[in-house]
Amino acid sequence: MSPRSLTLHPDVSLAETDDGAVLLHQRTGRYWQLNPTGVLVLKQLLDGRTHDQAAQELTARHRAAPDAAHRDVSRLVDELRTARILVESR
After folding, report:
1. What residues have CB less than 8 Å from 32, skipping those under 6 apart?
2. Which residue, 1, 35, 76, 88, is most buried by CB atoms nearer than 10 A?
3. Which InterPro entries match (predicted)?
C-alpha cells in the first residue's frame, strides 16, 4: 500500500513571510508560525514527497543528522495533523 499524500485542510491558508510562514485555520482562528526549515518540510510534503524524502532534503540542505531530520519531520507532521492543519489527500 502506498503512503497517502498530505494536503492543507480546506479551511487553512498559508502566507509566506520573510521569517518562514504563517498558517491560519480560518474556522478556528488559530494560527501557527513556521520557521524556514518548517516551510521547507511542509512544501516537500505538500508536493507529494514522503516523510523520508522530506527528511533527506532537510539533511542535504542543512547538513542535519539523518536521525534528527526524520524525528523533526515526524514531529512537525504529527503536530500539524493533530491541529487539523494537515490532512490526508483523497
Report:
1. 22, 23, 80, 83, 85
2. 76
3. PQQD, PqqD_sf
Confidence of residue 90 (pLDDT cuts 50, 70, 90): low
Residue the block writes with cell 523533526? 72
Tens-place pLDDT, residues 8-46: 999 999 999 999 999 999 999 999 999 999 999 999 999
The whole-number average pLDDT for the span 52-74 is 93
DSSP summary character for residue 25: E
Tell me if the pTM is above 0.85: yes
CA nearest neighbour of 79 among 29, 27, 26, 41: 41
What's the grid cell of residue 62? 542543512
Cα 59 to Cα 48: distance, rounded to the nearest angstrom:
18
